[in-house]
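hey
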């Protein structure tokens, strides 16, 4: 809800491609991706968070968390 409420859902759905340093708006997209990464990681306990810190995009973190914790019982 936190991510959707701030209109950043596209970062975890894969709608935003990871920018390259030469892309226009790189700094903004990079900063927004890091913000979503932080939200995802800070909502976990430190032991879990450590496993996902090195993943570079919010989409990769979301996918890894879903793979590890989603049991298929709800759509979120």
């Amino acid at each position: 809800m936190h991510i959707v409420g701030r209109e950043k859902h596209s970062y975890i759905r894969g709608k935003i491609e990871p920018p390259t340093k030469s892309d226009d708006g790189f700094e903004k997209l990079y900063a927004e991706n890091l913000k979503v990464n932080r939200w995802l990681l800070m909502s976990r306990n430190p032991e879990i968070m450590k496993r996902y810190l090195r993943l570079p995009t919010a989409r990769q973190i979301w996918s890894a968390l879903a793979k590890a914790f989603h049991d298929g019982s709800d759509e979120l």
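The helical segments are 2-5, 9-13, 26-42, 46-52, 58-69. The two ends are 10 Å apart (CA to CA).
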